[in-house]
Amino acid sequence: MVHPTVAVLERNLALYRRLWLASAFSSFVLPVLFLVSIGIGVGGYVGTIGGVDYLAWIVPGVMASTAFQMAIGESTYSVLGDFRWVRAYHAMRATPVEVRDMVAGWLLYILIRVEIAAIVFLGITALFGALHSPWAVLTPVIAALVAMSAAAPVMAFAASIEHDSYFALLFRFVMIPSTLFAGVFFPVDQLPQLVRPLAYLSPLWHGVELSRAATLGVAAPWPIWAHAGYLLLCCAAGLTWAIAAFRKRLQD
């Protein structure tokens, strides 16, 4: 008998097989176009940062932010829809599938999508000569941590609301500011002193710095264990919240 978590994963993959073309542009093509336009185009004016060309400097940020945005995007309307409109989770609850299986199956689905995108992106950036260290092979693992640290709490949020209008607030006040001010495009130390702690709170900043340390072979601003530990803490807290939110929603 297939494990319930695997059954949920198979269901999500079966749905994605019918819809993958709609997300191919944002998952694979858009990051590469962004890399070329900003990394090479704007990079010609920026020059170097920290002794490396702007293209090599921005690559890890784009990879981490792509994982971050994919995780948030996949954890909003799809989760709310399966509760409110499709009621797929209610159907699952009538089977041997437990709440933890629902959450784990969806997170595994997101992880597979993020890892495929990260590996493809890594291969393309290698062709551009933007990887300066063999430790760059660890960036898909870092992308996975970023994705899980973002997806789990957003899943919990999606399971806790009744209307999709709240997602506009999430995108406007969480996802976009995190992408702009988490060290993806410029060093965080260029921000005002009072604003920097907000960047440090974002799991994206920790993912960007870990990825940059891996692709450039340089030291991260904080010890590696501190960055990784913060991401793992966000994952654990988000997972706990998601399971509780799913369970509460299914009991209502």
Rg over CA atoms, rounded to whole Å, is 19 Å
Nearest-integer average pLDDT? 89
What's the helix count? Answer: 10
Largest sheet: 2 strands, antiparallel
Q: What is the global morphology? A: globular
Beta-strand fraction estimate: under 5%
Distance between the termini: 30 Å
Instruction: Tell me the domain tally.
Output: 1
Biggest β-sheet: strands ordered side by side in the sheet: 1-2
Instruction: Report the count of strand segments.
Output: 2
Strand-pairing-aware structural class: mainly alpha
Instruction: Give the proportion of residues in helices.
Output: over 70%
| H/E element order | HEEHHHHHHHHH
Uncertain residue segments: none
Plain-language structure description:
- There is one protein chain.
- With 252 residues, the protein is mainly α.
- The protein has one domain.
- The chain is 77% helix and 2% strand.
- It has ten helices and two strands.
- The protein has helices at 4-46, 54-74, 77-84, 88-93, 99-127, 139-160, 166-181, 196-201, 203-216, 224-251, and strands spanning 48-49, 52-53.
- Strands 1-2 form a two-stranded antiparallel sheet.
- It starts with a helix and ends with a helix.
Give the secondary structure arrangement, pairings included:
Blueprint lengths: L3 H43 L1 E2 L2 E2 H21 L2 H8 L3 H6 L5 H29 L11 H22 L5 H16 L14 H6 L1 H14 L7 H28 L1
Antiparallel strand pairs: 1-2
What structural keywords apply?
single chain, 252 residues, mainly alpha, two-stranded antiparallel sheet, 10 helices, 2 strands, globular
